[in-house]
Amino acid sequence: MRPPALAPQLKREPLGRNVADLSSAMRTRTFIRWALVLALVVSLGCRRKASTWVISGSQAESVVIGLAQEKGSRIPLEDLDEFTVTTCPSADTSRREVWTVTAISTRPSIPTQIRYGVVPSGFTAPNAAPALKPGCYEALAIGTGIAASVRFEVRADGEVMELTR
Predict the structure, then answer these.
(1) Which of 17, 35, 92, 156 is the most exposed place for a label (fewest CB within 10 A)?
(2) CB-CB contact of 98 with 154 (8 Å)
(3) 64 and 39 in one domain?
(4) CA distance linking residue 63 with residue 113, whole number of Å
């Protein structure tokens, strides 16, 4: 005659929890930690290099903004959706949009320079660009995973100066 089969017994910890519950909790915590690390890496990885600057020699009637992955580079931005020039906000006035161009195709040829008032190929502008009066302006390049801006001042003599923040 064979002895009766014994049901498997779980080891108990001194606090009364069994090892199976503890290892499941540890696996869950480990999974959550790795999920958070992965989310952090993905969110940091989505941000792409982007830089904007005023091209030397720009004048009020011909402001040229450089756009590239790094200042002075000829490597274009990836996925530029919109380029906007606004007035600078101040204590007395809020930011006001002056001129905007928006991509009309999903893969436009991204320029490395945009001349104020001239709509690049693959983009559209809802309005003509008004003349820039003396004052502070900001050019913004916005797209999927990119954002860059540069402030500049148009002086009374027509000279354009890039401003540092």
Answers:
(1) 92
(2) no
(3) no
(4) 10
